[in-house]
Amino acid sequence: MYRYDEFDAAFVRDRVAQFSAQVERRLSGALTEDEFKPLRLQNGVYLQLHAYMLRIAIPYGTLSARQLRQLALIGERFDRGYGHFTTRQNLQFNWIQLKDVPEILSLLADVEMHAIQTSGNCIRNVTADQFAGVAADEIEDPRPVAELIRQWSTAHPEFSFLPRKFKIAVTGAEEDRAAVAVHDIGLRIVRHPETGETGYAVLVGGGLGRTPMVGKWVRDFLPKPHLLAYLEALMRVYNAEGRRDNKYKARVKILVHEIGIEAFRARVEAEFAQLDPQRIQADASEVERIARYFAPPAHADLPDNPPALRRARAANPDFDRWVEQNGFPHKVPGYQAVTLSLKGIGEAPGDISSAGMRLVADLADRYSFGEIRVTHAQNLVLPHIRQEDLHDLWQALAAGGLATANAGLITDIIACPGLDYCALATARSIPIAQALATRFAAPERQREIGPLAIKISGCINACGHHHVGHIGILGLEKRGEESYQITLGGDAGNASAIGEILGPGLVAGDVPDAIERLVAVYLAHRKPGEVFVESVRRLGIQPFKTAFNAEIRHDAA
Amino acid sequence: MSSAKLPPLPAILIANDLLTGDTVFYSGQGWTRHPGEAQIAEDEAASLGLEAAGQEAMRLNRVVDAYLVDVVLSAGGIPVPRHFRERFRLLGPTIRPDLGKQAEFPGLAAQAGQTR
Ligand code: HEM
Ligand code: SF4
Questions:
Q1: Cβ of B10 under 8 Å from any chain A Cβ?
Q2: Tell me, what's the ipTM?
Q3: Strand-strand pairing, A351-353 and A82-85
Q4: Which helix (H) or strand (E) holds A39?
Q5: Would B72 be classed as within a structural domain?
Q6: Could you identify which of A65, A115, A410, A460 might form a hypothetical disulfide with A364, taking C-beta atoms 3.0 to 4.6 angstroms apart as the criterion?
Q7: Contact B19 A98 (CB under 8 A)
C-alpha cells in the first residue's frame, strides 16, 4: 500500500491545523456561514437533514486494516457506531458534530487519511477497479497511476477552481469494474496493438446527474510518460471553455457534447503540443517509488483448488454458494479475492457497524495481508485469501453477518442515502432497496435470476448510479408524494449504456411488483446462458415496457 | 418584507444547530430539540416574527439554514410538517427508528401520528 512520505504527512497535518482554525473562527462568529461553507466543503463536511456529514477519502478504494480500525473508532466515538460506503469508494459518517471535526481529521491523519477533495469544484478522489493488482484479467495494476494522478491533482493551483467537480476513474483490466465510461475522464490501461507497450486509452465526457452521458474516446493510445501533460492539456481546455454561467451545464460532458468530440480532441491536442511532457511528468524515480508501494504482497506457492477447499465445498452448500457467488479469480494460483457483501437482506446498502469494521480489519490481518478494498457497488473486498483459508474466513464472516452470498445478484443493490439523510433528496432510496431485497431474498430465486444490477438514487443527481443500473430507480416527488421512475437497460461495464424510462412513476409500494414483472419477461424469454441485461439488449425495451405498464394503477401515480 | 415567500399557516421555524448540526425548532424563547416545544405561528404577523427570529439567529451564528415549514397539529399536540421531507427531519431516518429524535424522545412518533 501507499505510505505517506514526509511531504504528504506534513501537507495533511497542515490542512488539519488550517481547518481547525477555520472551525474555531466559524464557532466564534468570525466567519459567516457563507464564508465558511466552501471551506468546510473542501474538507468533506456537508450539512444533511439531521446533522453534519463527513466524507472521508479512500483513494482508489484501498484501505489497510489499521485504517479501517480507526474508522471504526471514529464511528463509535463521534458518530452512531456505523458508517456508509459510497459509490465513490468513500466513507460517509452521518451524525457528525462540527465541533468534533478537527479532532476526527487529526485521528484520520494518524492513519494517513483525510477528507480533502471529497467535495468542491476540484479533481476529486480518483477511483479504480476494486480488484486492482489481483484480477486475473488485468493488464496492469491501475493504482500506481491513480496515486500519481492524486498527487498531481491534490491542491493543484490551476485546477482548484474548476467550473464544476471533476471525477477520474482508472482500470487496468479487460472488464471495466470501475464504471470508467461515466466519469469526466476514464482511463483504461491498454497494450499497444503493435509494440505491446502499455499505455492509456482515454475517455472523456462521461457522467451521470441530470444529463447522463457515456464518455467518448479522445485518445486510443497515450504513451505513459505523456499522461500528466495530456491530462493537463485536457483540464486546461475544460477550465478555459467549460461553462461557468450555469452549474447544470458546467461539467466537461456538456462542453464535449456542445462542441463535439472532434473539436474537443483538436483543442486538447493543440494545447498538448504546446506542453513539454517531460517537464510535467513526474520523475521516473518518483513514478518508480510510487509503483513499489503497490508491489504484490509475498504470496506463497500454493496449488489451485486444494483438497481442503473441495471437501469443505462438498460438505457445506451454503459455503459452496458463497465461494461461487462472492469469490473472484486471483492472478496468483491458490489465492482468491472475495467480496464481503454489505447488502444483507433488509439492511441499508453500504452501511457497516463499527463492530463489523473491526471484524473485517482483524480478518484482513489474519488472511489478507492486512488489505481491504472498497467497491463502487458499496461492498468490501478481501483481496488476497488463500483458498485453503476460505472456509475459516467464511465462518468468521458469517458469525458477524457479513457472509451474504449475493455479490452481483438482484439483492446486491446500490442505493444512495436518499431522503433518510440527504438534504438534496426528493425521495427515499434505502427503503426501496430494503423492500426489493426482501422480496427477492430466497437464495434459489436469486441464483435462478442471475446477475442483475439494481441501482437507486434519491434525486436526479444520480449518486446511486441509477442511469447505469440494468434496472434503475430514481426517486422523485410527484403531487406531494414520493414517486419512483424506473429505467431499463443501463450498464456500467464494457457495454456502458444509459437506461431508458419504462413508464409513469410509481408509488413506493408498487415498485417490487413492477420489478417482478420485468424479471418475469426476462425469465420467459432468455436464451440459455443469457444474463438479464443481454436479454434486454437482444429483445429491446418494448416487451419489458408492455409488461411494466400492464398493471400500473395510473390513478395511484 | 413581502409575505409572498411565507408558507401557508400554521408554520414553525426549523434550522440546524451550528455546533452540532442537530435539527432544532424555535420555541419563542430560544431553540429546542423537541418539536413539541416549537412555537406555532397561526397568522402572518407571527409568521413574520418567526422569520425575523431565524434571520437573527443566523446572524448571531446560533443556527444555520433556518426556514419556515407549514404544519398540521397532530392529535398528540405535535406540529407535524405537511411535507414528507420535513416530517422525516422531525423524527429521524425512517430506516433507523433507533436513531434521531424518534429514539431520543420516546412516544414522539406516536404523538406525531407517524407510525414506523
Ligand atoms: C450530502 C450528500 C451528497 C450531496 C450533497 C451530493 C451532491 C451531488 C450532486 C449535486 C451531484 C450532481 C453533479 C452534477 O450533475 O454535476 C452528485 C453526483 C454524484 N454523486 Fe453525490 N452527493 C451526495 C452524496 C453522495 C453519495 C452518498 C454518493 C455515493 C453513494 C455520491 C456519489 C455521486 C456520484 C457517483 C455522482 C454522479 C456522477 C457524476 O458526478 O456525474 N454522492 N452528487
Ligand atoms: S442522488 Fe440525490 S438523494 Fe442521493 S445522495 Fe445524491 S444528492 Fe442525495
A1: no
A2: 0.94
A3: antiparallel
A4: helix A33-41
A5: yes
A6: A65
A7: yes
